[in-house]
């Protein structure tokens, strides 16, 4: 060894010791807050080296957070002495230095990265080593956007490894007080005596059928965990901080939207007239959509609730009841169906004049201002994802505080808002607070710039079991007798064809089977009846509940095209398919699912199509009580399996009821927050 080599060796060791000392000092003097998804916590702290299950775990950080990752192991190792950890590090000089730094912390490195430009970087060897470690029950840390990026892009290697081994991937976000290194990933270098957060989202499972969806989901959950980790730390605001609300382009975007809506007003009037002809608007109340109002504003505090459609209206009813004792409520809806539901479910509040209903004005500036001038609400409470820019801006001008209840922001909606990030930040700045329904939704709101976001829970988990009409239930059971029955609930145009195809297949084995179809929009009852007649040639039109028709022994289909009777329908069979989730692949329908807790509370076993993005957390919570069916054939097979195994149906029904337990305290908690908003708004 030459003197130069000796000098180089000693300098490398000195650099290694200096970096290790700094990292250890900075990470150990940081006040860490650890937030793990319950399923992720259970996986991380489980002893996978006992019993028959030896599947390991993949833990994913974005590459920029590599230097913060040891904090997780210092937290987890004392709680799980069986933990055996490996970290995948690039097969280069920097990677070797990092491996030497973390080695004394009992974090052995696996060297390798993707082969690029014909160069062997040890990727295949590392893949074999990681596969062996995972099959032995160990934990492997990976940076799925490395080496050298693209930044925040999940590469396919991690998905292939998860698919090969069956190991779930835990998406981690980390943030603390830091400065950024001048590297390709602008790596976070921790600074001492700050606050830090480690956040882990729900695990991602990968199969060959779900690889593409898993890539998107892992990216989304890594971004959400990183955004959540950054909140309430001393971290610098880049790159995942809420978007600035002070850029001149924000106001410009709002002005463009306002001008566009104003120019579009004549076309919107034409659209409303078309909707009247289709039965989707009430002709006598059409002027309400332009902000004209009848009746006087009541004295005292007035809280304006807006719920777009049936699901949102049902979810906020308990909150409105909790507020109605000392405040008057103004409720707007966007659909005729939701208005009728409100008239029935809150008839007592309407009769006692504790509540008034109007149709919401469309988001045209002068229409919204006209509505606000008449009602002068003390607060506006939006529901789920009803974020109308001109409405929020008008409320800000008139100093009406705006909050969001059961806030929901799907990945698709987030991508849409991010096409105009400055405009999104401007809209979010108009929200006083957001009560998100899930951690993922909360993180998405924060990514757009919402400042006061909490995760209070999903109001759809707080609703009591749907009521039943005793007379209808008795008569329906009498008409059904001992026939086998299954239910397709809340179906939409485009998926009834697949449901009817499944029903036709099932009748080959179960000739007296009855399929109950309850379309989400009751006015579609005649259309569904026509589809049913084509699916079962030679049969009469199926009976329709709206026509007071009941199923006869020869009927294959019964259409319950009425409003508010699902509580009765779900008591007729425990085998339920939830709609708005199963569409042919050659259509543009996006689905999103419907609330599975409603049938689950009544002990039903559930199936759904794969398009459940609006209720992903709810379906995940129901776990084994839900089966995802990708097509008509799979749906028919699932129904046949349930009909053949009543004991399994009963057991899954119990699981579903337990998972959908009634969270009775949540509506009152949210009502108290709204009271405070009115008092201090």
Automatic annotation (TrEMBL):
It holds the Pfam family Glycos_transf_N. The keyword Cell cycle does not apply. SUPFAM superfamilies: UDP-Glycosyltransferase/glycogen phosphorylase. Residues 224-245 are annotated as: Disordered. It catalyses: lipid IVA (E. coli) + CMP-3-deoxy-beta-D-manno-octulosonate = alpha-Kdo-(2->6)-lipid IVA (E. coli) + CMP + H(+). Pathway: Bacterial outer membrane biogenesis; LPS core biosynthesis. One of its GO terms (cellular component) is plasma membrane. Its EC number is 2.4.99.12. Residues 81-150 form the DUF374 domain. The keyword Transferase applies. GO terms for biological process: lipid A biosynthetic process. Keywords: Transferase. The active site is at residue 312. One of its GO terms (molecular function) is Kdo transferase activity. The record marks 384, 460 as: Transition state stabilizer. Residues 284-462 form the 3-deoxy-D-manno-octulosonic-acid transferase N-terminal domain. Involved in lipopolysaccharide (LPS) biosynthesis. Catalyzes the transfer of 3-deoxy-D-manno-octulosonate (Kdo) residue(s) from CMP-Kdo to lipid IV(A), the tetraacyldisaccharide-1,4'-bisphosphate precursor of lipid A. This is 3-deoxy-D-manno-octulosonic acid transferase. It comes from Acetobacter estunensis.
């Amino acid at each position: 060894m030459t003197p130069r080599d000796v000098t180089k060796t000693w300098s490398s060791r000195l650099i290694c010791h200096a970096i290790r000392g700094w990292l250890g000092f900075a990470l150990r003097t940081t006040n860490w807050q650890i937030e793990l998804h319950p399923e992720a916590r259970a996986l991380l702290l489980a002893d996978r080296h006992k019993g028959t299950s030896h599947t390991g775990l993949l833990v994913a950080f974005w590459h920029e957070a590599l230097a913060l990752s040891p904090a997780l192991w210092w937290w987890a190792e004392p709680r799980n002495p069986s933990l055996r950890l490996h970290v995948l590090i690039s097969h280069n000089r920097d990677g070797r230095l990092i491996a030497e730094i973390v080695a004394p912390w009992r974090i052995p490195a696996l060297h390798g990265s993707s082969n690029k430009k014909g160069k062997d970087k040890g990727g295949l060897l590392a893949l074999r080593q990681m596969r062996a470690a995972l099959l032995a029950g160990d934990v492997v840390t990976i940076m799925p956007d490395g080496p050298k990026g693209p930044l925040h892009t999940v590469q396919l290697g991690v998905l292939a490894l998860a698919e090969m081994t069956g190991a779930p991937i835990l998406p981690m976000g980390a943030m603390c007080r830091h400065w950024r290194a001048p590297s390709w990933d602008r790596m976070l270098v921790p600074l001492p005596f700050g606050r830090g957060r480690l956040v882990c989202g729900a695990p991602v499972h990968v199969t060959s059928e779900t690889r593409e969806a898993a890539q998107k989901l892992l990216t989304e959950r890594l971004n959400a965990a990183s955004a959540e980790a950054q909140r309430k730390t001393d971290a610098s605001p880049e790159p995942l901080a809420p978007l600035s609300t002070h850029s001149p382009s924000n106001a410009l975007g709002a002005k463009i939207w306002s001008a566009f809506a104003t120019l579009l007003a004549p076309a919107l009037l034409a659209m409303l007239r078309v909707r009247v002809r289709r039965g989707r608007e009430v002709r006598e109340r059409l002027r309400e959509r332009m902000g004209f109002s009848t009746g006087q504003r009541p004295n005292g505090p007035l809280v304006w609730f807006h719920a777009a459609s049936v699901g949102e209206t049902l979810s906020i009813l308990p909150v409105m009841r909790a507020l109605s004792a000392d405040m008057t409520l103004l409720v707007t809806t966007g659909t005729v169906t939701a208005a009728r539901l409100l008239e029935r479910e809150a008839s007592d509040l309407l009769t006692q004049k504790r509540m008034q209903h109007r149709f919401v004005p469309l988001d045209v500036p002068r229409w919204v201002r006209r509505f606000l001038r008449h009602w002068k609400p003390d607060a506006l409470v939006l529901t789920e994802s009803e974020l109308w820019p001109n409405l929020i801006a008008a409320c800000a001008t008139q100093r009406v505080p705006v909050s969001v209840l059961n806030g929901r922001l799907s990945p698709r909606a987030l991508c849409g808002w991010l096409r105009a990030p400055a405009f999104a930040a401007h809209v979010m700045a108009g929200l006083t607070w957001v009560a998100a329904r899930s951690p993922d939704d909360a993180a998405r709101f924060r990514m757009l710039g919402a400042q006061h976001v909490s995760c209070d829970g999903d109001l759809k988990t707080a609703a009591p079991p749907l009521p039943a009409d005793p007379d209808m239930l008795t008569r329906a059971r009498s008409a059904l007798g001992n026939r086998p029955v299954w239910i397709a609930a809340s179906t939409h145009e485009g998926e009834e064809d697949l449901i009817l195809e499944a029903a036709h297949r099932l009748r080959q084995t179960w000739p007296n089977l009855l399929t109950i179809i309850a379309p989400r929009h009751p006015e579609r009852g005649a259309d569904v009846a026509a589809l049913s007649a084509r699916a079962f040639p030679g049969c009469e039109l199926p009976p329709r509940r709206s026509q007071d028709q009941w199923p006869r022994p020869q009927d294959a289909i019964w259409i319950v095209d009425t409003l508010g009777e699902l509580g009765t329908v779900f008591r007729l069979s425990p085998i339920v398919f939830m709609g708005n989730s199963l569409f042919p692949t050659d259509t543009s329908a996006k689905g999103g699912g419907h609330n599975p807790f409603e049938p689950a509370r009544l002990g039903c076993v559930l199936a759904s199509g794969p398009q459940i993005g609006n209720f992903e957390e709810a379906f995940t919570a129901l776990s084994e009580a839900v089966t995802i069916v990708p097509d008509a054939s799979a749906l028919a097979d699932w129904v046949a399996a349930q009909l053949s195994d009543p004991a399994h149906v009963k057991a899954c029904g119990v699981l579903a009821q337990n998972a959908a337990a009634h969270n009775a305290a949540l509506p009152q908690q949210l009502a108290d927050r709204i009271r405070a908003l009115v008092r201090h708004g």
